[in-house]
Design brief:
Blueprint lengths: L1 H8 L4 H26 L4 H7 L4 H5 L2 H22 L3 H19 L18 E7 L8 H11 L3 E4 L4 H10 L4 E5 L17 E5 L5 E3 L9 E6 L6 E6 L8 H17 L4 E6 L16 E2 H5 L20 E5 L3 E9 L8 E8 L1
Parallel strand pairs: 1-2, 7-8
Antiparallel strand pairs: 1-12, 2-4, 3-4, 5-6, 6-7, 8-10, 9-10, 11-12
Helix pairs in contact: 2-6, 5-6, 7-8
Amino acid sequence: MGSYHYRALCPSNPKALLGHKAVHIPIIALACACLFVDLFPSNWIAQKVSTTFFFAQILAFPSLLGMVLLLCGIASFIVCKVKSRSALALTSCAVWSLTALAFLILPNGLSTSSRATSPEQAQRVLSVVTFNAAATLTPTGFRELISTYNPDVIVLPETSADDANRAIKAASYKGSVYSTPNAGFTSTYNGSIAPTSVVVSERLGPAKPTTGPATSFGTVAIEFERAGLPTIIGIHTAPPLPGLMKSWKEDLERVVEFGESYTKPILIAGDFNATLRHGALAFRSRLTDAQESCSSWQLGTWSSRLPEFLRTPIDHILMSPDLQASSCDTKRIGQSDHLALHAEIAVL
């Protein structure tokens, strides 16, 4: 029995053994590479993968990827136990299963961003919402946002200033609309997508436009006269689609670089069309995602048509270390394929 077991684990035929190794060693190496990409998204290898077409889309749904890999790993393990008892085959199945669990447990990899400590008493708490209305914002939808969250700041990618003004007028919301200036667009903008708008409550006092990082579909930058309030940056990057991959990557780089180098309190919200493991978002050291403060598990915001556990978090509220999120929530509004993302932000 012992000799049979040894022969099963280690085929005695040299050619069969060589072929066995030629199959399983690359498979194990690939599994290890996938595990590395999951755990260390800021590494240059992971960066290359996360900004390459096809792989960028796959990595946007880490939970789905993890479930598929786990099912494949379990199926392969069963086959290995029945048809092949070789150590290499079983190791391959085990490593792929471990990789699958890593994507499920750590969908954003090992975080490198700093986190603010909870203050004893915040100077002020801001209610912030970002909602890509996909050019479908209605007064009814806006009223639902207002009644649910009573927001101080509403970032509205794909919403024209005219639509935003109509919505706040119909909802009797006391605030102002700030639209994307010409400098807020990159040279590739052609008007086919509605620009970004930001609505600010009059509770925050006077505000004025300022300069922010240009994005493909519009950036709105606002600063307040009241001391202590953060600069608000509302953005909408290009999506990672064929022909737009370069624009998408450069948009993310400009936004993150701006936020990381900004010396005053800053809040960047909008549709990033990326998760925290994509491109420059994985390089953050100063900026924290609001959902990182709220929970270790991020709520997905796209697509609203998918089950909750399959949605991907591509809408974000990023904060400098002098801000702290105390609660986060998502809500489906109207016909948009994005969910609204809300966070209570404490100004330290």
